[in-house]
């Protein structure tokens, strides 16, 4: 696994020991970032089920300013820290060992919001709808921001969660990615950053 593009292009990333973490493949990451980027001018990113941190690291490499990485696994947290050192981004990141729900509550209390949010939990988990609703209700996604929710093909997500509206659905074999953006209270997507024109 490697960083595909940007400042740290080509840097090899460590993977989390064991078989419990399923990293997003290079091919899927490359396709995803061609849609949401491919490069960024600042902004912050939340990688909530960080694993090895590959999604957040790719975003930093392509121009995001800061990142918050969260995972409940000690091995994942240690791997993220090592990968940040390898990529040269340790001074631009916060890394926490937390449950996803607890992490979102803490971030909401800090009144943080993110331009890019990645949700890639284990496919067996069923709490993505709960997390999407919480993120929407607490304004954790910026206007014009993008939220990516990844899951297995056996699961389903709704086109809307509160003020989050799905603008793209991408299918890569058994992997399904939904891209959401925030709507204003009147029901229209925030102007200037919608991906829906690419459907």
Structural account:
The protein is of the alpha/beta class and 199 residues long. It has a single domain (26-190), classed as 3-Layer(aba) Sandwich (Rossmann fold), CATH 3.40.50.150. 27% of the residues lie in helices and 26% in strands. The protein contains five helices and eight strands. It has helices at 26-36, 54-61, 74-87, 100-109, 128-137, and strands at 44-47, 66-71, 93-97, 114-119, 141-152, 160-161, 164-172, 175-182. A hairpin with a 2-residue loop joins β6 (160-161) and β7. The longest helix has 14 residues, at 74-87. It is globular. This is 16S rRNA (Guanine(966)-N(2))-methyltransferase RsmD. One of its GO terms (biological process) is rRNA methylation. InterPro entries: RNA_MeTrfase_RsmD, SAM-dependent_MTases_sf. Keywords: Methyltransferase, Transferase.
Task: Name its key features.
16S rRNA (Guanine(966)-N(2))-methyltransferase RsmD, 8-stranded mixed beta sheet, Rossmann fold, RNA_MeTrfase_RsmD, 199 residues, 27% helix, 8 strands, SAM-dependent_MTases_sf, alpha/beta
């Amino acid at each position: 696994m490697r960083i595909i593009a940007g400042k740290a292009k080509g840097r090899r990333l460590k993977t989390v020991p064991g078989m419990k973490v399923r990293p997003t493949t290079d091919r899927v990451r490359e396709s995803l970032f061609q849609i949401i980027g491919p490069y960024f001018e600042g902004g912050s990113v939340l990688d909530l089920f960080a694993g090895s941190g590959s999604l957040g690291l790719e975003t930093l490499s392509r121009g995001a300013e800061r990142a918050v990485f969260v995972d409940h696994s000690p091995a994942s947290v240690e791997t993220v820290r090592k990968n940040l050192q390898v990529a040269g981004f340790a001074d631009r990141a916060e890394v926490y060992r937390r449950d996803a729900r607890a992490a979102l509550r803490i971030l909401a209390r800090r009144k943080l919001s993110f331009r890019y949010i990645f949700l890639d939990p284990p496919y067996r988990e069923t709490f993505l709808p709960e997390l999407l609703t919480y993120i929407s209700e607490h304004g954790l996604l910026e206007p014009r921001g993008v939220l990516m929710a990844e899951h297995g093909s056996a699961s389903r997500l709704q086109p809307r969660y509160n003020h989050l509206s799905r603008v793209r659905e991408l299918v890569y074999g058994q992997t399904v990615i939904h891209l959401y953006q925030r709507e204003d209270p009147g029901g229209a997507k925030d102007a200037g950053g919608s991906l829906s024109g690419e459907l």
